[in-house]
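Help needed: design a sequence for this.
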């Protein structure tokens, strides 16, 4: 019984049961800067959708306290690419599907373990039928891509995947 209690106490102080592996005795705060748009093509709401989702990801899946400066963990970066390209062509020679992609550059600092620091890019894509206009599907597709990218960032920073 004592071993079970000690194991449970250790597990609750170091890990959450959602994939995050954080030693909350050493890491208590996270600083997440707003990511500006640095793309040639811009859709206005994209930055706020991304920034809100990224902050919500850590608020909902960790016990870390979000701070404005001097966080134990620090995440910053920028949205560096947002573009569309033809993905497939119909038998008539016209574009049948269009691929929308989004890339985010991320700088991560772990002030407790600097060997985990990194700067890298995360990308997500979505495809839509060319019979639809981008305006009709943009919000849904951007929301999907943002979810995928914030999951990738979360996994790379605190889930050790």
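Sure. Designed sequence:
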């Amino acid at each position: 019984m004592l071993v079970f209690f000690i194991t449970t106490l250790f597990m609750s102080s170091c890990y959450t049961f959602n994939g995050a592996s954080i030693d909350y005795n050493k890491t208590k705060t996270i600083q997440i800067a707003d990511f500006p748009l640095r793309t040639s093509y811009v859709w206005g709401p994209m930055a706020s959708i991304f920034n809100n989702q990224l902050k919500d990801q850590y608020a909902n899946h960790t016990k870390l306290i979000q701070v404005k400066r001097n966080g134990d963990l620090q995440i910053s970066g920028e949205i560096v690419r947002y573009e569309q390209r033809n993905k497939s062509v119909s038998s008539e020679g016209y574009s049948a599907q269009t691929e929308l992609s989004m890339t985010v550059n991320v700088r991560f600092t772990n002030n407790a373990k600097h060997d985990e620091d990194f700067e890298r890019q995360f990308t997500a894509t979505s495809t839509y039928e060319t019979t639809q206009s981008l305006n009709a599907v943009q919000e849904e597709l951007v929301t999907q891509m943002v979810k995928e990218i914030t999951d990738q960032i979360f996994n790379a920073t605190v889930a050790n995947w």
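The helical segments are 2-14, 46-61, 134-159.
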